[in-house]
Structure formats: structure tokens, C-alpha cells
Amino acid sequence: MPRRSSRPIPAALAAAALTLGAALAPTPPAAAYEHRDWGSTGAPDRPLRSGCHGYNYHYVVDPPSDDWAAEIFLVDPRGVKLASGAIDVDSDPARGQRSWTICRPSTVPGRFTIKMRVTWQTSITEIHKGWVEPSHFRLYRKR
Predict the structure, then answer these.
(1) Summary mean pLDDT of the chain
(2) CA angle 48, 50, 56 (to 5 degrees)
(3) Predicted model pTM
């Protein structure tokens, strides 16, 4: 029979296990996402140029805590996930502009969707996640 230790688990190890458990938890289906007013995203409509080019988008993160991170996803008109990015309070401003490189051969013109999931916490054990209302923009054929 294995011998059990009566020593307490170090706090750092417990926190790592909690974080790993949260990361491995299943994600609810898209219809179950509840949108929060913890930020916004957006991008202007513009032509989809041939080849690969950078396309700018902007974001604002405004959760009820000063400890936050966000993941941003780009979905094309067919529902294909084209790109993603991450921003974090330790390295990025809460409001800014970034860009994705989009290649014409890998997508189609139409209505694109930007989704953002914000994670914020008030303590090591109190972690909150929520999806921001998605934004949309169009990449159209050159006229």
C-alpha cells in the first residue's frame, strides 16, 4: 500500500494545477456564449488584395479588474478560422491596433468576424472569462 504524505501542497503547485484544469476544461458551444461589455473590436471594410497583405484591426479591453488577458480570433465568411492573437496587461495596452496577414489564396471575399474572449481575475482562484460581442467587416473584390 502506498504511503501518503501529510505535508501540505505548495501554493504555487496548487495554483498551477488549478490553471491547468481551467485550460483543459471544455468550451461551451457557440450558442451558449454570453457576451459581455468587457471590450470591443473592429476593422474597416476594404478590398481583398491579391497576394498576402497586412489588414489592421483595433481592440479595446475593459474588464472589471486590472489583471486581464484577451484572445482575438479572425473567422472568414466560410467559418474558417484564419488567424488569432493574444494581448496581455503585462505587455500590451488596453486599447490599441494590430494587424493580421491575410493571403488571398487562402480565403474568399465577404463578411469576416472578429471574436474576442477576455479573461480577468481578482485572485489566484477567482478567474472569469467572457466573450465580447463579435464585430464584422467586409473584404470585397477589387472593382
Answers:
(1) 82
(2) 45
(3) 0.73
